[in-house]
Amino acid sequence: MPVTRAAYACDPAQSRGRRVFEAPAPTRSEFQRDRDRIIHSTAFRRLVYKTQVFLNHEGDLFRTRLTHSLEVAQLGRSIGRSLRLDEDLIEAIALAHDLGHTPFGHAGQDVLDDCMQGHGGFEHNLQSLRVVDKLEQRYPAFDGLNLCFETREGILKHCARRNALLLEAAEPGGVGERFLLGHQPSLEAQLCNLADEVAYNSHDIDDGVRSGLLDLEQLETVPLVQTYLREALAAYPSLNGKRLLAETIRRMLSAQVYDIIDATGAALEAAQAADVQAVRLAGPLLRFSPAMRAASTELKRFLFAQLYRHSQVQATRARAEQVLRDLFRIYASDPQQMPAEYLQEIDPSDLPRACADYIAGMTDRFAIREHQRLTGLSLF
After folding, report:
1. At 56, is the pLDDT very low, low, confident or very high (cuts 50, 70, 90)?
2. Distance (Å, rounded) from C-alpha 268 to C-alpha 270?
3. CB–CB of 175/153 below 8 Å?
4. 27 SS3 class
């Protein structure tokens, strides 16, 4: 049964438009078109071989950026339907939010940011916007995917002030303006940001146990996990192993989804946001309840200490960092090592940015192969 879009939701018929005008599609809304363009992009396909915590060669069943993006889209659409938001816009933002991520997860982001000091730095959110605005080359009339303002706004979750000023200078009143004014993005964008957190907390638990770096005994010390682990055992006393883990995570996910729906519904009622502009001028409205926010933060602290800083993860991270540092150094000193077709498209006056773009677009396994080709070293 169709869901009536709320007044505070984004309406594709009232979109602030695309940077290059295009006539409307006969059978799809503007946000549907954005979603479809993202799915068919080269950068989206590459996400299948870009990893979250565990590298691609460490196992076939660990999450990748692609599976993570699909999980964010699923959670976002489920919540968005209950809140009467635009599901196509939510899906478009969710599927595109990690397009600018480097190979090797956050290790790659940190390395490229360090390499790019003095050249504007590197932010993966800004890189995702750069991918859809410039780096994708599929259309004869423009660079990028020419997405709607609302989709681009949602992709740019965070932005340093210096970069917001540059965006505003290039596109007055565009996606950089809200960071300068302290305004909020649409509810659809706010939802994708929170769904991202819910998804990675949950799947990092799953991957952490699957890898052997975490176990249920450790997880039972985390209040949010403990609650639903005990609830699962109360319902199924003989449950154990992967089924117990899956049931615990399922219950935890459901509780977080319902909490967001209830807490956001109350915030919307209190704010009396009559339209999208009222949402932008209000404080953050898409939220957890205070109790669930505290529980989620505690889980993040646990994962940071016990998984992301685990000695095995750190050892892999060190090798990944060397791969990307070496690649940046080699390309910056000898650009001819990058493909001739790519060199024809770059701005020769900004070689460091071209090197960062090329490396950021790599999959984990391509970066490893390219490093071995150029250095003779086999680090993985």
Report:
1. very low
2. 5
3. yes
4. coil
| Side-chain-side CA neighbours of residue 285 (13 Å) | 28
d(C-alpha 211, C-alpha 59), whole Å: 9
Could you give the angle at the alpha carbon of 75 between the alpha carbons of 72 and 77, nearest 5°? 105
Among 224, 226, 214, 218, residue whose Cα is nearest residue 298: 224
Q: Specify the 3-state DSSP secondary structure of 209.
A: helix
How far apart are the C-alpha atoms of 151 and 139, rounded to whole Å? 18
Encoded amino acid at 310, one letter: H
- Element (DSSP H or E) covering residue 316: helix 311-333
Question: Smallest Cα–Cα separation from 16: which of 148, 158, 171?
Answer: 148
Written as six digits, the tokens of 375 are 């250095």
Domains, the chain, ranges and CATH? 27-312 (1.10.3210.10), 313-375 (no CATH)
Give pLDDT tens digits for 10-30: 999 999 999 999 999 999 999
Tokens of 372: 């071995």
How many CB atoms sit inside 10 A of residue 273's CB? 20
- How would residue 78 be classed by pLDDT, with cut points 50, 70 and 90? very high
Model confidence at 61: pLDDT above 90 = no
Distance CA 212, CA 151 (A): 38
User: Which amino acid, one-letter code, is at 259?
Assistant: D
- Cα distance between the two ends of the chain: 51
